[in-house]
Amino acid sequence: MLVTLRLLLLFAFYFTSGSAVAFSDRYDCEVKQIIKLHDAGGLSDATSNSPKASLYKPLLGKTFVVDRSTGNVQGSKWFNTSELERITIISDGRGQNAFRVLYVGGPPASVTTFLYIRETAKDEQKPFIMVDSSFAELTFGGTCK
Known about the structure:
Layout: H1 2-22, E1 26-37, E2 43-45, H2 53-56, E3 63-67, E4 73-75, E5 86-92, E6 99-104, E7 112-117, E8 126-132, E9 138-144
Antiparallel strand pairs: 1-2, 1-3, 1-9, 3-4, 5-6, 6-7, 7-8, 8-9
């Protein structure tokens, strides 16, 4: 009986502690790769195979925070959604869904950014991809926890 009670408590702790981490109110993300779209349709590493690699390289290792309830992103000027006109959370990452959000800026420069965080990844570190349609047309990849 005591062994069964201990097992039940262990399972309860395991599942509730995992849920608390998985359903935090924010993601803390780090950029690990930056790729650029080319006119011919290909993608390449923007930090080494780009004429502006010296501009993009300092963005590697940068961090930003995503508020899960609003979709708002805070970080450096590259990772800040406070000036965008519309933020739409497509999926909040609960259940078997990834966290997905669309950011749209107003005129004169209509910028659209899409953020995808694979919440279903088994590790604490969740992979993300952020596709940015601003003047640089960069795609960022990395992990969030």
